[in-house]
Each structure stands twice: as structure tokens, then as C-alpha cells.
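Colleagues,

For the teaching module next term, I've prepared a clean inverse folding example: a structure given as C-alpha cells, and then the sequence designed for it. I'd like students to try predicting residues themselves before seeing the answer, so please don't circulate the second half yet.
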């Protein structure tokens, strides 16, 4: 009677786990490098925007022409509130310039007060500022009962020839606000150039943070890639 001897079937050796670890490190290094470069790029872009838009401490829009055949140009209601504006937006500024001999008025009032003042007055509300033309909603009516400077609804106002500006702090005035531009005597036909600016205290901190974090991630990613490459060379030599 013969005896059958069973021999264990050999299995291929398991792949070394070091390879999977190196791949994971490689992926993390590339992600760190890409993320760091993106953060650095964003920081540099903010610095460039700050330098190009900064005007006397305010980030300022391009100058736009605003006009109305009626007695006033008004903005849509601007809502301020819900965030710490003193940290995000410090102060706002609106500048308007009419013809050299045309006294102009610009004022900021609570929306309800501005709407009451302009009720029944022919005027235009800016709905969109775009190139090549600004869009308006037209409101029919007549002349205002009193010249704008004689009304007491404005929290900030400026009147005169040349460039006139209103400047106010945002942190203590939550609510809905409207900016109104008129001829100082309340006459028909408003035609001005205007720009809007704001101080942004948080911008410097955000820019610095993006640059610092971006540089740190780039250094970590680049350092990891260099380390992996050196380790790979050493492994080849040992083999």
C-alpha cells in the first residue's frame, strides 16, 4: 500500500508595504505642493489687486457715468449687517463729479427715508453697472418738494462744485441704505461720474496668511519629494 505525501503549495511573497507607503507620501507631497502654489498665487493676486485698486487708502472701483433725465439717480437698497463690518469693511466712500460749474449733491439715507423723499419724484434707480451701458429703472413723477440739502434724512451728505464725497463708517450703522445723487438745487437732468470705495482691514491679514500658509505647504511638499527621491536612490544602490 503506497502512501501519498502532500507537499505545501508555495505562495508568491507579499509585495512590500513600503511601496504603498511611498506612493501615499508622493500623493500627499504633490497635493501639498499644488495647494501651496495655489495659496501663494492667491496671495500675490490680492497684493496686485490691492496695489492697482487702492486710492487714498480705499479699494476703489473704476469711474462710471451716472445720468438721469429726471431729478435724481438713486442706488438700489444696500443692506449692511449680519457680519462684523468693522473687521471686514471699515469705511465706505462714494465720490461724484459733475460739470465744473454744476453744484452736485450726494447723500446717504436709510432706504425707507430715501424712498419717502423720492416718492412722486421723477428719478432713475441704478439696477446694474456694466460696460458699455448702465441699466436703470425709471420712475415717473415731478420735481422734489424741497432741495436735497434742505432735507434732514441724510446721515452723510456733501454739496458743491467739483468732486464731492461722502465717507461713513459701516460698523455702527446696520440696516438698509440708499445713495442719492442730485443737482444741488434739485433741478432736472443729473449727469455725474462716480466711483465707490471701501477700506478692507481684513485684506492685509488674509493676504499675509495666504502667503505664509502657501510657502509652508510648498516647503513641505518640495521637502517630501526631495526626501523620496534621495531614499529611492539609496535603495537602488543597496540593491
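(Answer key — instructors only)
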Amino acid at each position: 500500500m503506497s502512501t501519498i505525501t502532500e507537499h505545501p503549495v508555495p505562495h508568491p511573497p507579499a509585495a512590500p508595504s513600503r511601496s504603498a507607503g511611498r506612493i501615499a507620501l508622493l500623493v500627499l507631497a504633490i497635493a501639498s505642493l499644488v495647494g501651496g502654489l495655489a495659496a501663494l498665487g492667491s496671495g500675490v493676486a490680492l497684493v496686485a489687486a490691492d496695489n492697482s485698486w487702492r486710492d487714498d487708502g480705499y479699494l476703489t472701483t473704476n469711474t462710471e457715468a451716472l445720468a438721469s433725465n429726471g431729478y435724481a439717480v438713486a442706488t438700489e437698497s444696500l443692506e449692511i449687517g449680519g457680519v462684523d463690518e468693522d473687521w471686514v469693511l471699515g469705511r465706505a466712500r462714494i465720490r461724484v463729479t459733475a460739470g465744473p460749474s454744476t453744484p452736485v449733491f450726494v447723500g446717504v439715507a436709510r432706504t425707507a427715508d430715501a424712498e419717502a423723499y423720492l416718492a412722486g419724484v421723477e428719478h432713475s434707480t441704478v439696477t446694474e453697472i456694466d460696460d458699455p451701458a448702465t441699466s436703470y429703472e425709471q420712475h415717473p413723477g415731478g420735481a422734489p418738494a424741497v432741495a436735497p440739502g434742505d432735507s434732514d434724512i441724510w446721515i452723510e451728505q456733501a454739496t458743491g462744485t467739483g468732486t464731492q464725497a461722502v465717507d461713513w463708517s459701516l460698523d455702527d450703522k446696520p440696516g438698509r441704505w440708499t445713495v442719492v445723487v442730485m443737482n444741488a438745487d434739485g433741478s432736472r437732468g443729473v449727469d455725474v461720474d462716480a466711483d465707490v470705495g471701501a477700506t478692507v482691514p481684513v485684506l492685509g491679514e488674509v493676504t499675509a496668511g495666504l502667503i505664509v500658509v502657501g510657502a509652508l505647504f510648498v516647503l513641505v511638499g518640495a521637502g517630501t519629494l526631495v526626501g523620496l527621491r534621495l531614499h529611492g536612490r539609496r535603495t537602488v544602490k543597496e540593491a
